[in-house]
């Protein structure tokens, strides 16, 4: 990791959308946990197109506390883009992305810092030792996702590890060099490598507000992860096609042999329709998977910016960012 200066800065990156009631509690919790433990602290909020009074609350907080910095995006670009904006603009020697709902306890950051400063780890990620706040269905689907992803993708992501982690500046700089538009941040965090370790913690229930993720969004999030870090969905159809072709060839031999032995045979309507519908469905499914990858190629080739910035409290100027 290299030597750090005696006086170093920690940046906490917090994407928010419609979280006006959570801002004050979050700042109080961070101040109580880290107030005297960090030489310099930057709390960087990224407002991802909030439609309530979140941005106004953030402006008031920045006016009261010089450690608070506000980055307002021009509209809602999604959490992954907002987090990317935070990483791009964070100034700290170490950066910690986290949510504002206090399900990621700020006091755990002290343990992150110890591993980073004293033991030389470049990345220290939080591992949810307990997911009691989640429903049984969500815990089961999350477990399946991690197992399938790590079995199929080349990049391994730690099970039950979210975005809550500490990253050394050189890890942040490496992630900033990854330009893809379809961003699966858990995979991007793991891709650079570097020396990493997990810290287990208990994840409490939300202090306020409600989660912005529903099962449909989580499903699409999982698809983004698979498609971004694995070509297995494409490759499997090659194997499937080879198996079906082999079976079809054997069946042709069987039909030819039967005609030679017992004479001409009239095929049944039911078996014909079953075969047509089955293979038609398989073709549509395979075309859909191809379309998923082609759609991502289309988005990448347009090279649109990941986000646009309307306001940065550090400069008090409006600007656009890639």
Key words describing this protein structure:
9 strands; 2 domains; about 325 residues; alpha/beta
How would you characterize the overall build of this protein?
The chain has 322 residues and is of the alpha/beta class. The chain folds into 2 domains: 221 residues, Spore Coat Polysaccharide Biosynthesis Protein SpsA, Chain A; 71 residues. It has a 9-stranded mixed sheet, with helices on both faces. Strand 8 and strand 9 form a beta hairpin. The N terminus and C terminus are likely disordered.
Helices, strands, pairings?
Blueprint: E1 9-16, H1 23-34, E2 40-47, H2 54-64, E3 68-73, H3 79-89, E4 94-97, H4 108-119, E5 123-130, H5 136-152, E6 161-168, H6 169-176, H7 185-190, E7 196-202, H8 215-229, H9 232-262, H10 269-302, E8 309-312, E9 317-319
Parallel strand pairs: 1-2, 1-4, 2-3, 5-7
Antiparallel strand pairs: 3-8, 4-6, 5-6, 8-9
- Strand runs, count: 9
CATH topology of the largest domain: Spore Coat Polysaccharide Biosynthesis Protein SpsA, Chain A
The number of domains is: 2
| Name of the level-1 CATH class of the largest domain | Alpha Beta
Q: How far from one another are the termini?
A: 28 Å
Please give the count of helices.
10
Instruction: Quote the average pLDDT.
Output: 77
Q: Let me know the largest β-sheet.
A: 9 strands, mixed
Radius of gyration: 25 Å
Helix content range: 40-55%
Q: Could you say which overall geometry the principal axes of the C-alpha atoms support?
A: elongated
Q: Structural class of the helices, strands and pairings? A: alpha/beta
Question: Order of SSEs, N→C?
Answer: EHEHEHEHEHEHHEHHHEE
Approximate strand percentage: 15-25%
